[in-house]
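Hi everyone,

Forwarding the result from last night's run.
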Amino acid sequence: MSPELIEINRLSKAFNAHLPPVLKQITAQLAKGKICGLVGPDGSGKTTLLRLIAGLLLPTEGSVKVGGFDTVGEASEIHRMIGYMPQKFGLYEDLSVGQNLRLYADLRGVVGEDRKNSFEKLLKFTNLAPFTHRLAGRLSGGMKQKLGLACALIKKPALLLLDEPSVGVDPISRKELWQMVEELVKEGITVIWSTAYLDEAEKCGQVLLLNEGKLLYQGESRRLSEKLNGRVFKLTGATSQKRRLLIESLQLPEISDGVIQGKEIRLVIKAGALQPDLGTLKKNYPEIALEPAQPRFEDAFIDLLGGGPGGRSALAEATPKVASLKEEVIIADKLTKKFDHFIAANAVTFTVKKGEIFGLLGPNGAGKSTTFKMMCGLLKPTEGEATVGGFDLKKAPGKVRSKIGYMAQKFSLYGSLSVRQNLDFFSGIYHLAGHQRQEAVERMIKIFNLAPYSNTKAETLSLGFKQRLALSSSTMHHPEILFLDEPTSGVDPITRREFWLHINGLVEKGVTIMVTTHFMDEAEYCDRIALIYRSQIITIGTPDELKAASASSENHNPTLEDAFIRLIADYDRKHPL
């Protein structure tokens, strides 16, 4: 019997005869009993490939076989042997956890003793047993993903297809999801895990890397990383000016990619280039030094796609320097928000300085978005005080909104309007008029490369371009303060780099930024971080201070993700429910 569970042969898929195919001549084999990571930029064809494997779409050319069954003529056989968890939450939000499980059991023909045993096992496996009567729409992001996984496993599948299951969930939930999937593999289940997190792809036994519908790489992630031996370095010695040094480093002709990583800057050298001369940089940063570093899968991924977006932000260059704000731009004093008897935010207190990136981190449902909405004047606090840009939120919410830009966690623009119509509408909301309004719209279309989509309905855009449109709409009036609620959730690493290039550039112009994120590598860009848990701030500090506070004899050099998990576990131990 063949060890390959899935055989893909010269597979192509086109949705429109007048447009390029979404997938082009894909040939791959996937072995049984392993986790295969499916990675690639936004719009690369990952979801289409999963749906073709599941027999939910028909190929334009080529074939897919699962367990020896062809997806065209034997799709019903394949449906019986797979579990599929789509990218968007596909369950019924107005049904409870238990009702969703019963519905999926009915659909899969799981009855009697098998149903009882399956429910008992899955509720224990996902830790959802205490929440069987809670409506699915009221679950946190991590709990929703666990419920989606449970429904996909109602009948034990031979193949489990997971389309970006960890998007929008916090590091603790992400770790729990990963552990659950590893347990499934031990039971002989084969898993294809589509992911935007490249540290997850690095854990997979096999990786398929897609770009623009083409298969660029198939094999072990470490094999791809090894191709960058001798081309990855860390730049040390500029802890207080990391953001500015990164921007300048990315403009060196030898540099392909760069990110902030803890106290250092991680740089990837272009293929064939010599080690960069730091002479120019050392004039402003005399303490810096270049040291070799071990390549990661993310380095190889970005390099294979042609490198990062560079060091120049057209958005920052078009933004005037902020000069009018006081030193403390944002002040929250014991902010509390209650919904009936539920306390969503409890005595939240912090200050943010002008030109600072201030991060709010925390598990799903901890109170981050509630705090954000109060600071933007979108939610009225039950108790406490807050000032933004010198204005009291309670007394002058309109003046506060004129100074800020706000990018919501969920896509909140008008899906039925085109890209240009959305920009035109928001320019009016921000009181831009006449030539100034037209200029702002054209500027954003140019900066975010929206021209090919200017007449496209926003709801039909890929996630990456939806996020670009959302960011452009929130910055077109040159706000002095910018609130970004998970701005890069679900987008690929190159788009994330592009966003942070703009964010770093805006801060250099004096813009003050509050941001939430579940990407811990992104949180390294923050000047300070507040960790919110159980509706309150449990600690505030720089990324390095949080990591130092979580160091232990078992882990002397924790990552920020390690720190996140450890600090919350310590709080639980000291404050049991």
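The first helix runs from residue 46 to 53.

Cheers,
N.
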